[in-house]
Amino acid sequence: MTDRQAKSQYVAEQFKTLFAQMQKLAQAANHQELIAQIHSDAQLTHLERHIFQELLYDQPSPSSTLRDELTGLLIRSSLLESLDLALRGLQSSNAILAVCFIDLDGFKEINDQHGHALGDQALCLVSTRLQNSIRSDDLLCRWGGDEFVVVLQNVDRPESVENLANRLLTAISHPLRLSADEPLTLFLGASIGVSIVTAATSIASQEQVDALTFIERADQAMYSAKKAGKNRIEITTS
Questions:
Q1: Closest by alpha carbon to 176, among 146, 219, 149, 143?
Q2: Residues 135-173: pLDDT tens digits?
Q3: What is the pTM of this model?
Q4: N or C: more exposed end of the chain, with fewer CB within 10 A?
């Protein structure tokens, strides 16, 4: 065995030993309290939270790694899983959790007038802009078609939610420069519905909101924004 192989084997053995020790510690703790601690800690990354979940339940969470084929964003099941965990951890946190449901205004016209290939280009460009507009701890999902969902985590105050939602709307509204036989510039808007929940409102209502219900409330707010004239934000507090 070469020195390099010996070193690799040593690292692998150390990793297995440390992982087993961490798993034993995690499983000896109260699961709900530990989940709450994990999701109230702004220093932890999404990857670290995912590893903690596997330590707790001794099983992988394959849906958390599934991505939309076109945009590379999270798919529905991945987002719902992560959002449910965040909601469980909200009880011991003073932070605010918010869901932004985004429906593009004017996307159907792009597909109808310029074809689905350019429509796909537009979706990819919007996805990139949204990804660049969120914080490292936030989650971004392509909900379906031209709908996106953003989960804003560990927000300090309600005013910050509105500021972050406006950042998303601004990013979408910039001109889209697409590649075709000839350079093409198009414009999109978005109707954004925002649902906000805090530990205080959850306790006061004596209701444990699940991920899908939380997103549906943001969806309803989005329809209110669309009815009010489109290209705007409507916020509701759960």
A1: 146
A2: 988 999 999 999 999 999 989 888 999 999 999 999 999
A3: 0.73
A4: N
